[in-house]
User: Fold this.
Amino acid sequence: MNTSGLNLLIGLAMGLNLLALGSGRVSSLIRAVSFQGMALGAMPFLLSHEFSPWVTLVAIATMVGKGWVIPLLLGRAMRAAHIEREIDPLIGFVPSLLLGAGGTIAAIALARSLPLRPEHAGTLLVPGAVASILTGFILLIGRNKALSQVCGYLILENGIYLFGLLLIHATPLLVEAGILLDVTVGVFVIGIIVDRIQRAFDTLDTRKLTVLRE
Amino acid sequence: MIPLLLILLPLAGALLAAAAPSDRTRPWFLPAVGVSHTGLSLHLLLHPPVVADGAWFGFDAVARAVLPMVSVLFLLCSLYGVPYLRARSERPNRVFVATLLAVIGLISAGLMARHLGVLWIATEGVTLAAVPLLHFNRTPRAFEATWKYLLVGGTGIALSLLGSFCLGYASLYGHGSGDLTFHALTEAGADLSRPWLLIAWVLLLAGYGTKMGLAPMHTWKPDAYGEAPGLVGAILAGGLTTVAFVALLRVRSVLGAAGEGAVADLTLLCLGLFSLGVAALYLLGTRDFKRMLAYSSVEHMGILSLATALGPAGIGAALFHVWTNSLTKGSLFLSAGNLRRSAGTASMDDVRGLSESAPRSTALFVAGLFAVTACPPFGIFFSELRILRAAMDGGHGFTAGAFLLGLLFAFFGLTRVVLGVAYGPPRRRPPAPGPRFAETAGVILPPLVLLGLSAWLGLSPPPLLEQVWSAAVAQLASTP
Assistant:
């Protein structure tokens, strides 16, 4: 296993988390998610010693799905709705960044205290996963535009994928493939909904979704 | 092979329905699948198949204890669906019928899943397949409800996947072979890594708790149930929540085998009581009779959660309560759907005196109110009594008191809304455009039969079901 190469990629993904938290332009948010997806897709190659067709398939499917197809759909939704910037977010960009940076440090500290198998102890997989999940939640809660929230959801999913890499050799790949399919379909459906919401409200601002309340 | 048909048959039906050309004949796919699904699951109830330990799907004791109920509920909803979709002929129903059939196939898969990953895939599938159903009315309110459902439900499903990974890692760290069937996880028992196991439990409880609609993860429920057609609400409240509850029961048994049952029970108890309290408070405030049903569902999920925390007797009572609650809720959702269509709105600010415009549906709705607030002879009275007895026998006096208090407040809230819309002088509103809502046998009999089943379960629960529930408790409590 190529630990240093893997850690480099995870570090890159963690940096992209911070970029996503600090960016006000939806297009750069989508680009950050796309790069993160590609980095994630390359990781299974570094985790395995020998060539395995299943792992290769998972890796290529991840790269194409997370790195290309989903960002393409998001970009199309963005242009259709004329949404360029996140305006007046619930959690500002600087507080989001500070939260994200603090969360990353906390994630590293947390991972130290968890029992890990010797082959995983040297990797950043667990802190990377926790930091990405946290980033995803900050974006989900702190952003108003539906597209930014979908990007947050994707980063959350990426964090879970990072954690899943711990198990990639232990669990049957059928489960992994099924999970990948579900993720893609889930975002696809969300994309359709975004499209519909736009037609119904002429805006992608989820703050206007407030009719249903007590 | 026969158990797999419970999954494959509705999925095949969904494909055929999607390919069928006519909107007028397509709804008949629903009762066709409903009848065969119910036939199959009743056959399996009487002749349980042998399930291999390592099987990923199986009609095991736990599936046998709940799946027949879902079949019967779906059958009655599908019979209701034919006249419903005929009345809504202005909408194309291709997607609706196909996804409803897919939902029932995936719910069967979720209930029979004996593998952590497969269970997750089935739950994710149900979540996604239900989206077009919520969206059927295409109003701005339905869009809003669907968006919230996706965002909250999607996050819940992500957390349960993370929890599944953590449970997998707990097994891997304990030198497991990577076999994630519940059988293997239970056998690994004390070998599972304790920190990872507890993290997994918290995440799975949050994830599947979101699907179940336990407070504070219940926020999608009032919107979704309030805006979805009544029959979709019935299937979600009786089927989807049951999948999530069974998932929690299966995971809870893994924790029990690992010696962490006390922690799991404490969290389930707290979450259950909290849900009961939150639901009771919202029931006192809500003004919409369909959203009211959603809060009532949150209340009953809380009851299931706290019953599970009361040990084997409580789990047995909870399985009984799954039956009584789902059948009663089904009846309430269907009659509420009738009332909603008759009145044109579901808010008690605009609706009064429904007993004049839709007397039969109103009578059913009021009877359903008494059934769901645990009046004898309906089933919920007896299942809640059993839960109460389990609490008292186990020395949980405080829990029993809080439980009764929650029920009392829920009773006040529910009667306030139901009696408010049912009686009194009707509001003189301009008649809604289009033909007047007609209370035909097709929309009255299914909720009536569901209510009758609830009463039957209360008055004389068949001994066979008692045995089946005990067998499920034995499987869940087994320690190798």
User: Anything to note?
Assistant: The helical segments of chain A are 3-22, 26-47, 53-81, 93-113, 118-121, 125-142, 146-164, 173-201. The CA atoms of residues 41 and 59 of chain A lie 5 Å apart.
